[in-house]
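LPS-assembly protein LptD: structure tokens wanted.
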Amino acid sequence: MSPISQPCLQAMPGRLSRSAVTALVLGGSLCIAPFAVAQDTARQPEAEAQQIPEIEPQDTLETAQDQPSRQIDFEARTLSYDNENDVVTASGDVVLRSDDRSVRADQVTWDRRSGVIMANGNVRFVDEAGNQLYTESVELTDEFEAGAMDDLLVALRAGGRLAARSGERGEDGTVILADAAYSACAVVGADGCPKNPSWRITADRVTYDPENDRISFNGAVLELFGARILPLPGLAVRTDGAAVSGFLVPDLRVSESNGVEVSGEYYWRIDDNKDLTLGTYLYTEANPMVSAEWRHLTSRGAYQITGYATHSRRISDFTGVPTSEADARGYLFANGRFQFTPEWSFTGSVRLASDRTFLRRYDISRDDRLRSTFDLERIDDNSYFSLAGWATQTLRLGAPQGEVPVALPAIDYRLRLDDPVLGGKIQLQANSLSLVRKDGQDTQRAFVGAQWDLKRLTGMGQVVTLTSLVRGDLYHSDGNSLTSTAIYRGNPGWETRGVALGAIDVEWPFVGEAFGGTQVLKPRLQLVATPPIKNLAIPNEDARAIDLEDSNLFALNRFPGYDRVEDGVRLTYGLDWELLRPGWRVKTTVGQSYRFDRDPVILPDGTGLSERVSDVVGRTEVRFRDQVKLTHRFRLDKDNLAIRRNEFDATLGNERTYAEIGYLRLNRDIDTLEDLQDREELRAAVRVAFADYWSVFGSGVFNLTDRNEDPTFGSDGFEPIRTRLGIAYQDDCLEFGLTWRRDYVTAGDAERGDTFQLFFALRNLGFR
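Answer:
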């Protein structure tokens, strides 16, 4: 045990309603000066205690200067001095504080002769990291640290709890605990009654190193619901919640494609800002696979690199049938972000797979395309600059990779002028894009433009926004005939185009009481005028997926990109209504537009915008606390009110028991454009909690598209894509369960069939 130097107590006048405050300085001889207490709460010293003698202030200062000392503030109900035994005693709600450490106890004594400081009765010691130690009696060292103690409980700030029969502090500052147990579970229930933890780690000896925030176990064994199930040699955890090196909990899975799968990973914490995870996957129906994940936090940003590798038969990109002997297969995923200055930053990602079914077969991802990107940005108060590029790898069987474009570079610059012009704000923009295909059309684009916006609030409460825009475009394309859809090709060679637009937008909100709450009614009118624009001469690369919906009803250009611009004169009108009451929020939007021109437009039939009068679109949202969330979006045919778009998303319940339903039907009758085919699908998920910590859950994705809606589909109108069922246990520190998933679609060597997975996780044990 570390020696404890004799204390020097200097009592100073203070003011607290129920206690006397003094300053305690460790080091030097005992020096006691006059102190004061509030008379309404102070109690007389015990009969055997002697009157505390007065010491001249300069004697105290001279003693305090003899050697370095730690100052400790404390408060207590009573303070007494036993002259015969040379003991100072503070009693009744004693609180000691020094820097970020504190001790609370029923009584604290300083023995001058032995140099021992003891805290007794309901002791709680809090260190500078926020960890709390509970015991009945503890000896404090001269550095204001806990010394020897019995029957202690340590509540770590990161959430773990450590209990032991006895403990003592070594000369190096570590705390040695005997017959100890560790758990991240609560030991007291919601009713305040003690409860047994779901899991705990028992050990013969535990070493707590506060300097390195580390707890090491000797003879550790994992107990689950009281049963000893697994020895854990070399186990260590950190008190600050950070991870430590070690093996992670293995996964067990059974799938149709790979048979029985057992995977295990080793986590290596190289430093506080970098780590490496190495994984091995063993299968009964496939060759083994390895993985690695590297993560690094630098002074400029962070990045991570993840890779998978195995050796098995590849498949054809078009048929999905194995076509060769065993070959290397794998997947690489890397991303990161770096902030060089407050203005300049860089974001990038790389996603590459060796073939089109690797990710699906090994259940890594179900994406049908992988996108690699980079973006160098500069942002300040009035300007934005971006130099970006991207490449996409398709994972869809039968889709030619050569027809997928590579964008390099994509440049965008915007500047907002400080000085208003005619009372409005001006923003300048310059943009350039180059798209290159191996087996398709190449397109290069550049434009410069300016937009002026003026917003005013009238005396009657209308919000009026005036907008004008001018833009000059320059295009070059070749290989146009390789684009199968004629209206997307444009003319080969060089093309120029001018764009001008003017708009006025008026909103008039009305607020009042209704249905026990507050309602807001907001009519809105927008008039947009654009001269005729040379659209079909320009290639269409970024404005293909056009569809009238509530999100673009009042957009200046309802095409999603720059390559197509609506021309002519149109009037858009709509109505927003919102009701707010305690716990409730209901919001709905409905609108339509009217085109004054009779000339043919470039908007395809079926989008809801091809005729002079558009279809009717709307959106309704209903919220009730966190228990009901409902969103409905629709588009109605203007002639017969037939439903052309019907989208429904709803969540009912709480965090433990809930149901989610999602439904989408696009009934646009567009057969000529692959980007706008009809679709119908249903998504559903449900979880039901029972018996406190148990729950059952299930989900499914179903394709409801039939041959009439999309001739390329062979479905009869009901085709399950994927379903899942499972049972799980989850409390405050333990989670485990069993999941069954069935895939109904075969994609190459990713076969349809059943997959079973057992998952297991312990909180605050360095395991995932």
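The longest helix spans residues 57-64. The longest strand covers residues 322-339.

Cheers.
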